[in-house]
What we know:
The structure holds 2 protein chains of 2 kinds. Chain A is mostly beta strands. Chain A has helices spanning 14-25, 58-68, 202-205, and strands at 96-110, 116-133, 136-145, 163-165, 169-175, 181-188, 218-226, 230-239, 251-262, 265-278, 285-299, 305-318, 327-343, 346-359, 362-378, 381-392, 401-413. Chain A has one domain: Beta Barrel (Porin), CATH 2.40.160. Chain A is built from 3 helices and 17 strands. The radius of gyration of chain A is 21 Å and the shape is globular. The two termini of chain A are 29 Å apart. Chain B is α+β, with helices and mostly antiparallel strands. Chain B is 19% helix and 49% strand. Chain B has helices at 2-27, 80-89; strands at residues 30-43, 49-54, 58-61, 65-71, 97-103, 115-126, 129-142, 145-155, 165-166, 169-170, 174-185. In chain B, the strands form 2 sheets. A 9-stranded antiparallel beta sheet of chain B has the order 2-1-11-8-7-6-5-4-3, with no helix packed on it. Classes of the chains: A mainly beta, B alpha+beta. The A-B interface holds A 38-42, 44-45, 50, 57-59, 62, 66-67, 75-76, 78, 80, 94, 178-180, 226-228, 231, 260, 263 and B 41, 43-51, 78-81, 84-85, 166-169.
Amino acid sequence: xxxxxAWGPALRLLPFLALLASIFWAxxxxxxxxxxxxxxxxxxxxHADPSGAGLLTEYGRAMGxxxxxxxxxxxxxxxxxxxxxxxxxxxxxxxxxxGGSVRNGVWITGAPGGPFSEKFxxxxxxxxxxxxxxxxxxxxxxxxxxxxxxxTQLTSNTNGAGNLVSREHWIGLDLGxxxxxxxxxxxxxxxxxxxxxxxxxxxxxTATTRTNINESQQDGVALSYTGQSVRGEVMAILGNYQVNxxxxxxxxxxxxxxxxxAPWAAAGLSSLVTYAGTxxxxxxxxxxxxxxxLFTRLSAPKTPLVILAExxxxxxxxxTTSSNPGGTQPGMVGMLQADVEPTQGVHLxxxxxxxxxxxxxGTTKSxxxxxxxxxxxxxxxxxxxxxxxxxxxxxxxxxxGLTLYVLPQLHLYL
Amino acid sequence: xDNTRVRTSLLGGAAxxxxxxxxxxxxxxxxxxxxxxxxxKAAGPAGLNISGSTADMSVADDGATVTIxxxxxxLTTGIGLRDEHTRKAIDVGTYPTTTLRVPRSALKFPxxxxxxxxxxxxxxxxxxxxxxxxxxxxxxxxxxxxSVQGSSTINVDDxxxxxxxxxxxxxxxxxxxxxxxxxxxN
Lengths: 414, 186
């Protein structure tokens, strides 16, 4: 559990340190918003979570076999292969979904012209389950993190000494004749923007946005709707009860709505407002965090190209004290991503993003570009390599520093 | 007085010309030309949308009935296995085409350069079963080429289609159909 720390001018660096830490330490379970290329705009058929990511349904496992991975010329079987099941073949009753995700990587980083360093990253080792009894559901995840994902910890070992984590755990009630609504309470992914597994993107992971599926989950009550042309979710945020003391817990709301414009196009808007007695990252008193934005997913018809874009305006305000300049700091994050699948199972991606942040000493401007290759090369498995150039400006009075890194990683889902 | 008579004559002449043109178009036989597309949009539970299309089509016109025939063998949905399930559901091996027959008298044909649209009733054969359906259409005549679009919603249960169901995800019975094609008047 986390303890409150002293404030100080150096805390202005904390948002950037938090961003770097999250890049280093984890990458959570998979969410693939580019599945819109197959006209899968909603997440429900494949995921237990109506807003996507995490535990797969039986249908989702079959899609993993049929349309996600390389098939090397073989046709997908009419009935799902046995090895598509949990742990490559364990049968489960209809009322039980079991799954898991293991992801590890090597972080190779350095400045241009400088030496490069390597670090092994244990990114995720989670087991997940959902029990369904008629309209009632109970969902939980339990994992181990050697370091990182500190806001998901169940145990209180120091960071780097290994901790049990739980990113999600909730109970839910399916509502409506075709169950288009899910009302749930517990620890839930924040419903906001494009839900992807690239949790280190600025749109998901600045100290103000905090909407990634690695460790941004909060406890609360959420109602989701998935229809033929509209889907969305709104959540009353009651705080993260895996951090202490209560002053760090945020209360507020988050939500998104996405409209299907065509089988190959969707657009949506998101909004989030929270209040904390003390912000856990900025360490500022009486802090209000606001993020409001637009996003879109476009699949160019009859081409292997998908475009994802999101832009969010941010405002953080806090009380002025002797140790905190307070006031209101506006900001903006934006992301544009192209994903091309030249042949089934192989993805080539390019992402550009920007983060403009007002601070008490001026405006900082940060940029990143990603070149990504990802190969779903076998059942339950994918390899991914990101080549990243990042220019992070940590203070308005300091020139931005350029960092290069390469992040190869292996992901297995159980 | 003379001016009024002249205006009346001109109006009468224009109306006669329009009627003659309309009758000629209506009396002509239609032959398909250019590209065509026929698509369906089906829904599954919880927002799942499935759409498919084919470019194959023929149009026949015996002067009394317009018959649109769509071969289904090349109907594609973007996912190979789903194509197979779709073809299996409508038993393309046994029933390789779907056909819409519409009396010409039920259709409004536009004058040259003009649009026409309306609702009409036709006879749709799918999966070996024939049912009357209502559809909406619009048409525009450019030169001797008529561009036609039509749409309808059918209940595939009425046609005895065994709706695809895959791992608990079952297609709903109401399916939207749309078609577009061009025909020439000969």
